[in-house]
Structure formats: C-alpha cells, structure tokens
C-alpha cells in the first residue's frame, strides 16, 4: 500500500458523501508491535463498506509510524495529547458516521468475517442493540491459548453481569439506530470499569447477544489495556456499580430474576435450592471482597459435586 500524506489521513467526514455501513473505533496508546496487524485485520474484512477511526491517544512510542504507509480512504487517523481511554472512546463515538459502531483494540486480530457476521445478525434482529462474540485467546506471537466455546448464540441479560462479564469489549458492535448515539458515551465516573458500566446501563433497556463463533483473536500480554490497572481497581469500580444498579431495596422483580440466574449458575455444579431464601443477600455478598467466604463456599460446592459424581459412578459400576 502507498503512503498517504497527512492531509489525506485526516480527511474530514463531511467530504465523504455516503455513510459507511459500519464504523470501527480503534483507540491506540503505545501499541507499535501489534497495531499494523490489528488495522489490516479490519481493512481486509469481507465487509468492505466500513470506516476505520484510528484514535492515537498521545502515544509516546512510534505506534502510528507503523501504519503510515497504509493507503486506504476508509481509514482516518486522529492524533492528539493523552486524555485517557474513556475520552478517546467517546471521541470515536462522536466521529463515527454509521448506524452501526464496532469496537476494536490495537493489539487484537479481527477474523475476516467478523463485521459481516455481526452486521447480518443485527439487521436480521432489528430489536437487538448489542452484539458481541466469543473469542480465541492468543499470546504475543498470535498462538492460540484457549478457544471460548459456546453451544449456540446466547442472549445476554443484565442479571448475567452479577456473576461475571460475558462481553469481551473489543468484539462489540452496537446498533445506533436502536440505542441512540448519545447513550453510547462512556461514563468518566467509572474509570477502569467504563465498559462494565455501559453494559449494565444498556442491557437494562435493550437486547444483547453473544455469537457462539469466535470472531476475534484476543491477545493476552502485560501491555494490554485491561492489565494496565490492577484487578483491585476494576473490582472496586464494579462493586460500586453493582451496588448502584442492582442492589436497590424493595425490588421483588429483580430478586426473582436474580433467583433464576443464580439457580442456573448453581445447577451447573449440581446444586439445587442452595440458600435461595437468602439469595438477595448472598449475591450482594459475592461481589464484596470482605465477604469472600461466599466465594470459598462455591469452590467447596464444586469440589463436593466432583466427589459425589465419583461415588455415583462407582455405585453404577458395582450395580
């Protein structure tokens, strides 16, 4: 690809007549080793009618130099001083022109049909607002570490977030027509948990789905965005958010929905009706580290289940 000059790289959106079908937001901060691979994985998608917004958040290395020679009118590069991830993502939302917005990280690899598959699903299910996918976890060299396995495309409910986050941020595609652009802005009050806050807020009003097919190589390394802050920082943000969003007094309908989700999680370990009368308190306790003995109890449940299954198998053999 031929290099583009600076003026072309920063071409304003108003000079492009027809909005693309999908806008891809790609924040960059010191990702020189993998940025080019990430960019090319988007530009080589089977869905070609896209725009790629590369947002350089004041990188101190030569990240942007790695893609200077890529001549593609669908890519626009914006460089400025460092403002942080939340400000960068919100800038991307403002700059996007499509009815569908996809996220991408500068160190991941989008598989060739990712955008096409997600767009097709959202167009076939016009009431669905959020579409994410399963991922392949890869190492620094791109070798497969672990494949996420789902039996089928799975709806995502807000109650699911109590037991963990099923959404991998860089796999997400939003239906702007359903949500509205202003509702897609990340809340700066939830630094290090801005994605989790967005999922909680949106899933309380809109439908979400996770596609079973892995459509992204999610790179695991020390420099990735999610590892640039401690687990305790993110945990505190999530705890505060769950307390605010979920655990409100006199919410019988919420307690009933949580009961269903919680029973589903427990029955996967072979446990039925475990403390269901105190479910509301138990779930609240599970997200607070000072009450972590509940987590230990669940670990014990897993061990008991394995032990019981072993005993049952021996009894069948004897019979």
UniProtKB/TrEMBL annotation:
Keywords: Glycosyltransferase, Transferase. One of its GO terms (molecular function) is glycosyltransferase activity. Pfam families: Glycos_transf_2. Residues 23-149 form the Glycosyltransferase 2-like domain. It comes from the Bacteria. SUPFAM superfamilies: Nucleotide-diphospho-sugar transferases. InterPro entries: Glyco_trans_2-like, Glycosyltransf_2, Nucleotide-diphossugar_trans. The keyword Coiled coil does not apply. Belongs to the glycosyltransferase 2 family. This is Glycosyltransferase. It comes from Alteromonas aestuariivivens.
């Amino acid at each position: 690809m031929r290099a583009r000059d600076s003026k072309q790289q920063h071409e304003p959106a108003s000079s492009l007549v027809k909005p693309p079908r999908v806008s891809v937001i790609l924040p960059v901060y010191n990702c020189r080793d993998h940025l080019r691979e990430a960019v090319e994985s988007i530009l080589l998608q089977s869905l070609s009618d896209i725009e790629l917004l590369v947002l350089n958040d004041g990188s101190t290395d030569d990240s942007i130099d790695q893609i200077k020679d890529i001549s593609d009118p669908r890519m626009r590069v914006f460089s400025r001083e460092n403002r942080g991830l939340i400000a960068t993502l919100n800038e991307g939302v403002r700059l996007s022109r499509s009815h569908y917005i996809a996220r991408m990280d500068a160190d991941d690899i989008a598989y060739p049909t990712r955008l096409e598959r997600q767009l097709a699903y959202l167009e076939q299910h016009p009431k669905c607002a959020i579409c994410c996918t399963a991922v392949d976890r890869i190492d620094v060299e791109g070798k497969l570490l672990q494949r996420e396995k789902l039996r089928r495309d799975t709806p995502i409910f807000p109650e699911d977030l109590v037991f963990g986050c099923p959404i991998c941020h860089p796999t997400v595609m939003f239906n702007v027509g359903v949500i509205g652009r202003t509702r897609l802005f990340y809340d700066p009050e939830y630094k290090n948990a801005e994605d989790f806050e967005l999922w909680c807020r949106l899933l309380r009003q809109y439908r979400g789905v996770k596609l079973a097919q892995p459509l992204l190589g999610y790179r695991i390394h020390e420099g990735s965005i999610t590892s640039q802050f401690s687990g305790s920082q993110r945990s505190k943000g999530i705890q505060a958010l769950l307390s605010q969003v979920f655990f409100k007094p006199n919410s019988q309908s919420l307690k009933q929905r949580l009961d269903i989700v919680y029973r589903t999680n427990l029955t996967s370990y072979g446990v039925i009706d475990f403390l269901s009368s105190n479910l509301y308190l138990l779930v609240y306790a599970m997200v607070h580290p000072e009450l972590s003995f509940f987590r230990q109890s669940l670990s014990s449940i897993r061990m008991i289940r394995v032990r019981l299954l072993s005993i049952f198998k021996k009894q069948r053999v004897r019979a």
